[in-house]
Amino acid sequence: xxxxxxxxxxxxxxxxxxxxxxxxxxxxxxxxxxxxxxxxxxxxxxxxxxxxxxxxxxxxxxxxxxxxxxxxxxxxxxxxxxxxxxxxxxxxxxxxxxxxxxxxxxxxxxxxxxxxxxxxxxxxxxxxxxxxxxxxxxxxxxxxxxxxxxxxxxxxxxxxxxxxxxxxxxxxxxxxxxxxxxxxxxxxxxxxxxxxxxxxxxxxxxxxxxxxxxxxxxxxxxxxxxxxxxxxxxxxxxxxxxxxxxxxxxxxxxxxxxxxxxxxxxxxxxxxxxxxxxxxxxxxxxxxxxxxxxxxxxxxxxxxxxxxxxxxxxxxxxxxxxxxxxxxxxxxxxxxxxxxxxxxxxxxxxxxxxxxxxxxxxxxxxxxxxxxxxxxxxxxxxxxxxxxxxxxxxxxxxxxxxxxxxxxxxxxxxxxxxxxxxxxxxxxxxxxxxxxxxxxxxxxxxxxxxxxxxxxxxxxxxxxxxxxxxxxxxxxxxxxxxxxxxx
Length: 487
Ligand code: BG6
Known about the structure:
This protein is α/β, with parallel strands linked by helices and 487 residues long. Helices cover 35% and strands 21% of the residues. The chain has a nine-stranded mixed beta sheet with strand order 14-13-12-11-7-10-9-8-15, with helices on both faces. A six-stranded parallel beta sheet has the order 3-2-1-4-5-6, sandwiched between helices. Helix 5 (129-138) links the parallel strand 4 and strand 5. Helix 5 runs parallel beside helix 6 (160-171) and helix 10 (264-276) packs parallel to helix 13. 6-O-phosphono-beta-D-glucopyranose binds at residues 184, 222, 241, 349.
């Protein structure tokens, strides 16, 4: 048996400096993820966190907030963990504040014997990233004796141009190897499973091309509405919020060629090629291949335009469906249908790979079901394969059957949250599940063409009722190709 060498998670020592330490993301995701790593002993004695934001909090208050953000079971452990947290009120444009930050960082580095390893987590508006990066360098908050990594939250720009400027403002001070751009979908267990399923099984690997695959379908549906994020969402819309990053990342994992080795450099190289191979549409092609829509009041739920802080004539799309084409040897001619939206029937993230029918099928009169490989990412991580078998009994009828290929949880381990995995990867310096700048660049180029066509188009947004699976135009996108959504 071939032994696969896994990168083992060993004890890590690091100082985290979180810009945006009082924010929602820090409380909902980062502190619980760090706590999980602490509970597992991965970060333990030799770690500390400095949270910064403008509010004038004390360390005690910050530590209380951190404790509140953690799961309730273990109050004593939570307090011990939170004792590693320090707060600094910080104006990112004020050089003096970086001087204070440096002193605090040095003090904590000595106190916890961290050895100069620093992770700078930028969880605030991207317009501050450049100035933060510049000050980290000029005020020598980066160390000479350890690693210095920057973790960046989305959105990475709002189009190619702004993303390129943002990237330049960071790359002046940090090399690409030290920049970790988060796409939390890449930390999801079932998204990570795509490569295992594809490249770990000859039965899938050898069929994974346009000779055997008829079409791919990706659905990221959400039941929640815009919630408290009107300000951001009005400038983003579903295309920028979900397609540019999460959906295109999934597309790249589904269509990339097999990397030469299972390594960061080789995987990212193939993902870049996959994104480069996406056909960038002309305006007329956008009209033919993309649908944008907005949710309307139904089932006791408000319509998008009636939500707080949303313009009553807002043109922001809360739903996108599209048909993507890939100009690669293996995927030319295989349509990739994608769909995402808010206030849809239910929260579900899934991928369906629909295989072509058997050529010269001797059961053609029986209307055989398609072979479909389904990867359910959420709410439940499941994998299944639809096949045809003989119905038990007299005669010769076939029936479809679902084979459950879901990974068995052999050691009964709790599946780690995406942020826990990604933070551990960043600590270990493994950027495989972070997006390379070139991936971001090609994704924006693809998305910009759609956005520009919409901005210049007279066609109004279409509507869909809350609780549905989107507008009928999203179904027509497939019907015209004699196909339908599997989900
Ligand atoms: C975020 C989007 O990136 O992903 C949100 O900004 C969306 O609008 C969220 O709700 C969905 O993530 P998940 O993990 O809940 O599927």
